[in-house]
Amino acid sequence: MALSKFNVFIDDYGIVFNTLTGYAMALSREEFEEMKRGNVPENLKDIIEEGFSSRGDEVESLMAYALNKNVLEPTLLLTYNCNFDCIYCFQRGFRSNSSVSEEVVRGFINYVRKNERGRKVRVTYFGGEPLLDAGR
After folding, report:
1. Domain membership flag for residue 63
2. Same domain for 76 and 99
3. Burial class of 35 by CB neighbour count within 10 A (0 to 12, 13 to 18, 19+)
4. Which domain holds residue 28?
């Protein structure tokens, strides 16, 4: 059983965090060291179900995980416009006064309707300052 390449080991606290699934697990020092060496302690074999191990091709696992989650979490970029000047912002070079078109919004809504399959939907609004475009 191979450990996932998405695992991050936080030494000071004996925590393994998986950036793909968002799961975190506190381990004993012995379990933690064993996991860091790439071995899964016998009492933790069920971690495959928690997303800390790889079941083969990680890209296929990622797709299966994303498509079978209980929540559909699409992201909609509303605008690159922004009224802040955050020094850490990677979007600084993309800023413009353009906004998402009605056609894209309709396509987004159609995508959600087609793919929600009874799941909860949690939309993330992204880009610049998304609320600048909220009045449309």
Report:
1. no
2. yes
3. buried
4. 2-56
Q: Tell me the C-alpha to C-alpha distance, in Å, between residue 57 and each of 7, 38, 42.
A: 15, 17, 23
Give the residue among 7, 5, 59 at the shortest CA–CA distance from 32.
7
Is 62 part of any domain? no
Residue 61 in any domain: the answer is no
Mean pLDDT of all residues in 65-87? 79
Q: Are the C-beta atoms of residues 65 and 29 closer than 8 Å to each other?
A: no
How many helical (H) and strand (E) elements, i.e. helices and strands, does the chain have? 3, 9
Claim to verify: residue 87 and residue 36 sit in the same structural domain = no
Same domain, 123 and 80: yes
> Which residues are CB-neighbours of 135 under 8 A, at least 6 positions away?
none
Q: Tell me, what's the pLDDT at 83?
A: 78
User: CB count, 10 Å around CB of 18?
Assistant: 20
Is residue 64 situated within a structural domain?
no
Residues 123-134 have pLDDT tens digits of 988 777 767 766
Tell me which of 26 and 60 has the higher pLDDT: 26
**The tokens of 128 are what?**
């610049």
Q: What pLDDT shows up at residue 109?
A: 94
DSSP state of 56: S
